[in-house]
Amino acid sequence: AERRVGSLFPAFAMSFMDAREHGSKVGSAGVASAQNSAIDRRERLRRLALETIDLAKDPYFMRNHVGSYECKLCLTVHGNEGNYLAHTQGKRHQQNLARRATRDARDNPSGPALNLLNTRRTIQPRKNVAKIGRPGYRVTKQFCRVSNRRSLLFQVDYPEIEDNLRPRHRFMSAYEQKVEPWDKAYQYLLIAAEPYETVAFKIPNAEVEKRDANDFVAHWEPDKKTFTLQLYFKKNAFDKAFDKGKGNTNVFGSGYGAPPPPGALPVGFAPSAVPPPPPPRY
Which pTM was predicted? Predict the structure, then answer.
């Protein structure tokens, strides 16, 4: 008889929510499976979200032209609002919210998350800034006879620089610029400060010495409004950057030895034995 009753009324597991709605006594049904427990959990979260969350204020909630709902953060599609609210309480949506908050705190370090994230502030370029022209500059070519190295000294004046602003510099390859034809034997040193135009110095594409703090010096004097930069090239850097015997391809002059002493003529020039002709009379 028990088998006949069991065949007419198959046994099934009733969840807690179904038992409560049908008036059954708690615990009278069988043990719910893991799948039914997950369904009950999602249903509880959906009902709770419907009571506490306002979808009109959710920036990631969107209704498409088909009539379904989309999550712009996770790029998921949902059939109704309850399904979307259950998605917002899930693990995937919460992880994406945490990633978005971390990225926003990194991009905008002025907020309260500055003390939590030790990020480096990036300088954003300003637009629509009126330039007032090029700054004045001085370039000095130097040669150290002790270390047999060549160096360049740049001095740029910024008398009208903005307050609390320091000039910036960087090296640029010849292939990055579009003003002159590409030449791998040269590189460019860029120095910029608002509201002046960016100036670029064409220097040999030789390796710059940066092992010692005195080899590469960049100093800004706020009182004199002068930016000073001095760099040294490595000892045998020009043999790799240029081919010998191709004429005056070096910014320091022809040849690769020490520069001539003061008052002497460059290499390849000699004083003429014939005196110059007198100027014509008119």
Answer: 0.42
